[in-house]
Design the sequence.
């Protein structure tokens, strides 16, 4: 077909699509490149310019010598009432949620309430399908200096909800001050209307005299029940170190300030829910949560607390990332590698907070690990971005659940970190595809399936194989009955000599067969080819938030006469064994709730929101969007756009958006935005 004929045919198709959309459609064409994130300045930039795409591969730890028992049995009870030491039931959304640093909201969520990132929605939808919902915190170090400004503030790019300015912070990660407009809450609200995301925000604590509680007032007013809690300080035990308070600043001082905040909030008519605070969020590096509890924090403020929280990373990479990578104090990732492949380390790490979780339970409060990941200051190359991290986060999450942690939030930073669960593409690349998924997102997905939606899941560490550090296992009970077993093989051995055969026996008899889903990577140092039940989200720069490939569930016949189901695990691997053939998780693959793109160029996708669904004073018209559509982060590439607004109406059906995007893309080779 000639170019003129193709153009004519495409034009006819465009008219047809416009007719389908009736008066609800407005089209604006932009020349936009995707939103980018901060470029790394750490020592690993010699391998790749951005930590999120680092190619460092470490050598897997040596196989155990002497060899472990590779063929062992695990005795299980069918009735949970016969199992001492089961955890409290897991209640609520997905065990793992996400803690998104405020300085990267633009890249992860979108640039305003009517321009939302499709991959993020798809990733949340997949967790919702398995667990019913997801918890997301917007905060971190940057929340302490966050300030709400009016739309049109000169420090925020036109068309954007967020901006940055210097904070004066002296802490390790050089925290900027985040500026945001009221539109942030509408962005959150719009996301929650599409996927079941519940939110946490943080009240800035850098000025305890002139409290900035707009985030609480507008958050409650706009988000309503979708706002679950407000963090009252982020790691207050570091406040003297980071020069936010003058020494001495002790747990009693923090407790006093929370009381002053409560008194301030009670004078604000927009704050109608006062049982919303979260604390103490200590790091455990300077103070421990118990020291705050001893001040009367829980007794005095229990009627104002939504949840009890702490934050903790097992190790830190701060010296290498922000100081001298050759310093003797810098962590050497190769030497640290075995730490993350040892179940005993996971047990020890989680045990630090067992007493805190049980204390919270006595006050009928959730206990939340409010910020965590493989290592602070961005994690470690060759560890945080590999299959090792997926196995470690699975083991750690299950172990935290056994010790009555309610939820844990995996931290999300910019492209200058190694540990992200998901990362938007860099805008300073001339060619790009889509998002990059971190291995720990698979951990969140698997645990969501393991715990399910019944709100009855109870977990116990099986101390399998005589509590061998390489072969942990867990049992999961739902509605008081054995539901699933989780099995690990931490050993890396391509020869097959360390593959496992685990004989599961059940008091009361095994079923005729069990079904198994495997989380697999060819090695513990694998960065790309990670699969869950045969499916993958794709390798770096190829992720749109949807699973790809055929679902592969392994059915294993059991020997009912011998009361044994033998589960094979290659070295390395993880297996989730389903004892019920009717378990909903067996039919779950890609969530049927997916989001098409209405803004498209070189395969980078975002979704746009009907602007009339957003309060009139809150939206940005197309003329305002024409200046810059890039990142708020340093070094990003911004391409000016030429915008021509057209009529607006109701929301456009997603299939019309997708078809229209295809047609206009053919006609103009640009970005389409449906308003």
Sequence:
């Amino acid at each position: 077909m000639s170019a003129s004929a193709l153009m004519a045919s495409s034009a006819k198709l465009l008219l047809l699509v416009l007719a389908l959309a009736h008066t609800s459609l407005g089209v604006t064409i932009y020349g936009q490149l995707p939103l980018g994130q901060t470029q790394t300045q750490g020592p690993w930039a010699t391998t790749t310019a951005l930590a999120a795409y680092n190619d460092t591969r470490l050598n897997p730890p040596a196989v155990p010598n002497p060899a472990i028992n590779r063929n062992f049995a695990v005795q299980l009870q069918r009735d949970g009432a016969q199992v001492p030491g089961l955890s409290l039931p897991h209640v609520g959304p997905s065990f793992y949620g996400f803690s998104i640093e405020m300085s990267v909201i633009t890249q992860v969520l979108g640039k305003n309430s009517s321009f939302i990132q499709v991959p993020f929605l798809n990733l949340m939808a997949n967790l919702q399908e398995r667990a019913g919902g997801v918890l997301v915190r917007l905060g971190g170090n940057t929340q302490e200096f966050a300030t709400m400004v009016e739309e049109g503030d000169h420090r925020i790019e036109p068309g954007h909800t967020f901006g940055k300015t210097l904070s004066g912070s002296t802490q390790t990660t050089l925290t900027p001050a985040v500026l945001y407009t009221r539109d942030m809450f509408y962005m959150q609200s719009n996301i929650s209307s599409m996927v079941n995301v519940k939110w946490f925000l943080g009240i800035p604590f850098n000025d305890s005299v002139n409290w900035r509680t707009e985030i609480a007032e507008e958050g409650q007013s706009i988000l309503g029940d979708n706002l679950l809690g407000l963090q009252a300080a982020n790691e207050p035990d570091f406040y003297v170190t980071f020069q936010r308070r003058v020494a001495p600043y002790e747990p009693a001082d923090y407790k006093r300030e929370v009381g002053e905040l409560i008194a301030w909030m009670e004078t604000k008519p927009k704050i109608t829910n006062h049982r919303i605070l979260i604390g103490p969020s200590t790091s455990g590096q300077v103070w421990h949560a118990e020291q705050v509890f001893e001040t009367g924090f829980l007794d005095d403020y229990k009627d104002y607390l939504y949840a009890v929280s702490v934050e903790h990373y097992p190790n830190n990479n701060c010296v290498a990332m922000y100081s001298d990578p050759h310093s003797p104090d810098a962590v050497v990732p190769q030497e640290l590698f075995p730490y993350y492949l040892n179940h005993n380390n996971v047990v020890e790490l989680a045990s630090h907070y067992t007493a805190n979780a049980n204390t919270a339970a006595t006050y009928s409060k959730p206990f939340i690990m409010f910020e965590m990941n493989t290592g602070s200051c961005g994690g470690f190359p060759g560890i945080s971005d590999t299959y090792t991290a997926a196995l470690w986060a699975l083991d750690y999450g299950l172990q935290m659940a056994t010790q009555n942690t309610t939820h844990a939030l995996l931290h999300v930073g910019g492209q200058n970190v190694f540990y992200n669960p998901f990362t938007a593409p860099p805008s300073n690349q001339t060619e790009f595809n889509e998002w990059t998924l971190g291995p720990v997102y698979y951990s969140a997905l698997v645990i969501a399936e393991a715990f399910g939606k019944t709100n009855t899941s109870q977990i116990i560490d099986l101390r399998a194989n005589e509590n061998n550090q390489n072969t942990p296992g867990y049992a999961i009970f739902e509605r008081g009955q054995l539901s699933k077993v989780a099995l690990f093989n931490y050993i890396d051995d391509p020869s097959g000599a360390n593959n496992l055969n685990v004989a599961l026996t059940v008091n009361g008899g095994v079923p005729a067969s069990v079904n198994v889903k495997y989380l697999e990577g060819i090695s513990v140092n694998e960065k790309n080819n990670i699969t869950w039940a045969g499916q993958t989200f794709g390798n770096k720069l190829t992720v749109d938030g949807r699973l790809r490939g055929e679902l592969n569930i392994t059915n294993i016949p059991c020997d009912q006469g011998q009361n044994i189901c033998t589960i094979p695990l290659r070295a390395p691997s993880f297996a989730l064994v389903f004892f019920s053939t009717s378990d909903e998780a067996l039919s779950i693959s890609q969530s049927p709730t997916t989001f098409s793109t209405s803004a498209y160029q070189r395969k980078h996708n975002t979704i746009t929101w009907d602007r009339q669904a957003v309060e009139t004073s809150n939206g940005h018209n197309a003329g305002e969007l024409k200046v810059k559509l890039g990142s708020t982060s340093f070094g990003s590439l911004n391409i000016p756009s030429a915008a021509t607004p057209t009529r607006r109406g109701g929301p456009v059906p997603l299939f019309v958006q997708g078809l229209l995007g295809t047609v206009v893309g053919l006609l103009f080779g640009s970005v389409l935005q449906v308003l």
